């Protein structure tokens, strides 16, 4: 069993039993990690993606980010905005499931596009048109995942300047490039 102690400004973190967290830090031999203002990090609800703008806006008012998310502004809806929202949702679902195969992504795209029917109608698009466009973006998503997603961090593939939590999987070509760089 692992135990996390929150200290300093982390004491006020609204963690509840059974909340999903991601701990970036070192656990001692007894399975304990101390998170304070000088070492280690805790990410509460890591499955919720937030833009850097939302995070920055929260510094002046903690409720602002939540209110902006729940009370959407009534501005003009555009195709890039709708597609961006849908692609974000697809990416998040694929990351959570760690599934990047074409068949699964195709089903996902179709299901998510149907859930955004109202948004698509607002920009005068039918679901099949949106699905066709979204499917054209899946090879890019799959290529990104092939480079950066793996079940476990791979230390031999990580550039030395990246922190531990940013370690990535690498292809044989990347590995040979890195080995060549080490020899220099």
Defining key terms:
184 residues, mainly alpha, 3 domains, two-stranded parallel ribbon, two-stranded antiparallel sheet, 4 strands, disordered C terminus
Report on this model:
With 184 residues, the protein is mainly alpha-helical. It has 3 domains: 3-44, no CATH class; 79-147, no CATH class; 150-183, no CATH class. Helices cover 47% and strands 9% of the residues. The chain has 8 helices and 4 strands; from the N terminus they run E-E-E-E-H-H-H-H-H-H-H-H. The protein has helices at 52-58, 64-70, 79-97, 102-115, 117-122, 127-136, 138-148, 172-183, and strands at residues 3-6, 21-24, 32-35, 41-44. The strands form 2 sheets. Strands 1-3 form a two-stranded parallel sheet. Strands 2-4 form a two-stranded antiparallel sheet.
Given the structure, what is the number of helices?
Answer: 8
H-E string: EEEEHHHHHHHH
Give average pLDDT, whole number: 79
Global structural class: mainly alpha
The unreliable regions are 158-184
Kindly report the spatial arrangement of strands forming the biggest sheet.
1-3
Percent strand: 5-15%
Gap from first CA to last CA: 43 Å
Q: Can you tell me the number of structural domains?
A: 3
* Strand runs, count: 4
Kindly provide the radius of gyration, computed on alpha-carbon positions and rounded to a whole number of angstroms.
Answer: 20 Å
- Helical fraction equals 40-55%
Largest sheet: 2 strands, parallel
Global morphology: globular
């Amino acid at each position: 069993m692992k135990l996390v102690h929150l200290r300093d400004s982390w004491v006020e973190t609204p963690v509840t039993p059974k909340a999903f967290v991601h701990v970036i830090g070192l656990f001692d031999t007894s399975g304990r990690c101390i998170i304070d203002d000088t070492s280690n990090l805790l990410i509460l609800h890591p499955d919720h993606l937030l833009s850097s703008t939302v995070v920055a806006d929260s510094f002046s008012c903690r409720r602002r980010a939540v209110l902006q998310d729940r009370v959407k502004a009534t501005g003009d809806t555009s195709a890039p905005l709708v597609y961006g929202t849908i692609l974000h949702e697809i990416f998040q679902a694929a990351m959570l499931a760690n599934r990047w195969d074409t068949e699964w992504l195709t089903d996902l795209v179709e299901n998510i596009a149907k859930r955004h029917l109202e948004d698509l109608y607002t920009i005068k698009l039918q679901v099949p048109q949106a699905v066709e466009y979204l499917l054209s973006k899946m090879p890019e998503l799959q290529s990104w995942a092939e480079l950066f997603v793996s079940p476990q961090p791979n230390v031999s593939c990580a550039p030395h300047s990246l922190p531990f939590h940013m370690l990535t999987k690498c292809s044989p070509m990347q590995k040979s490039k890195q080995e060549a760089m080490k020899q220099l």
